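Exam revision sheet. Question 4 asks you to relate a sequence to its structure. Input first:
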Amino acid sequence: MNRQIVHVSAWSAAADARRHNRRKAKRFPTSQRAWIVSGGEKLCFCEIVDMSGTGAQIKVVREDRFPEEFNLLIVTDTYMKSVPVAVRWRGGGRMGVFFRSLGVVL
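Answer key, structure tokens:
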């Protein structure tokens, strides 16, 4: 029997995760408040966990109760912005969304 020694470290695990990441744009951690809006009605409050120029990851109570496309109303201390999004994935109380356009500052 031929034995092989394999070295595993946090660095090699992080490099492996980067190779399998299919995102086109780098995401940045955030903690922004937002509302999920569909048909002019606020469906739920959510938190934006990370964001890039092409999309975001949002934390919600139940990810299965929202439509495939909706507007994300991003609320800050100085402005509100409505961005149309499409859901890319759901799971674990989170959703990954793709920005369909730049949105409108309200």
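Marking note for examiners. The longest strand covers residues 80-91.
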